[in-house]
Amino acid sequence: MEREARTLIGEMAYAYYSGGADDERLLMGNVAAWGHWQLHPRVLAGIRSVSTATSFLGSPVGSPVAIAPTAIQGLACEEGEVATARGAATADGVRWMQVYILRERARTEELVARAAGSGYRALVLTVDAPVSGLRLREWRIGMHLPDNLALPNLAGDSTSSAREGGFMGVVTREFEPALTPDDIGWLAGLSSLPVVVKGVQRSDDAARCVEAGASAS
């Protein structure tokens, strides 16, 4: 599927979606680590029927599978995120909104209000991007935002900056770099939606997130 996608979307979009930071050592390590996982089903369990149905934060779903937040899907398809959401809905998916806490916090407040008013079920706060990683693959291929796409959820001249110099500088300039657990409580207080913290890699950080008001991390 990845090979076919690369042919269809072109090298620039492929570099954005598939690349990692610097020499991509951690990216390759993640792929290798995933390959070590195996399923070992139990037998003789007396099970007559199987259901994959479960719930995510109280919302029923047909299977325990989620689509990870991926920005600027319009690079791959004209309909972008709308097409992804439509496909998820056919599989009984629920909508969660990925959010960043921006330096211009009024923009984050506005985005949360729009998400809550549009029927989203949770906010997914990304916390592992105080600065952008040096994505050399994007830099080498000349990654930029095409003229027919925009960054409506960010502030100011982000769209024009991304067209001229790529996305790395936009992250550093627009995103709040000095987040603390108090910011989880601040975000949770903007709506009744549960907050899921994305980008946590340590168990003690996960516990701090929950103590600060997160529903999951």
Q: Into which percent range does the helicity of residues fall?
A: 40-55%
Q: What is the correct CATH architecture?
A: Alpha-Beta Barrel
Question: Which whole number gives the mean pLDDT?
Answer: 90
How big a fraction of the residues is strand? 5-15%
Strand order of the largest sheet: 3-4-5
CATH homologous superfamily descriptor: Aldolase class I
The tally of beta strands, per DSSP, is 5
Give the N-to-C terminal Cα separation.
29 Å
Name the poorly predicted regions. none
Described by strand count, sense and barrel closure, the largest sheet is:
3 strands, parallel
Class by SSE composition: mainly alpha
- From N to C, what is the helix and strand string? HHHEEHEHEHHHHEH
Taking Cα atoms only, what radius of gyration do you get, to the nearest Å? Answer: 19 Å
Query: What's the CATH topology label?
Result: TIM Barrel
The total of helices stands at: 10
Key features?
5 strands; three-stranded parallel sheet; TIM Barrel; single chain; mainly alpha
Gist of the model:
This protein is mainly α and 217 residues long. 41% of the residues lie in helices and 9% in strands.
How would you explain this protein's 3D organization?
The mean pLDDT is 90. The two termini are 29 Å apart. The chain is mostly helical and 217 residues long. Strand 1 and strand 2 form a beta hairpin. Helices cover 41% and strands 9% of the residues. A three-stranded parallel β-sheet has the order 3-4-5, covered by helices on one side. The protein has a two-stranded antiparallel sheet with strand order 1-2. The radius of gyration is 19 Å and the shape is globular. The protein has one domain: TIM Barrel (Alpha-Beta Barrel), CATH 3.20.20.
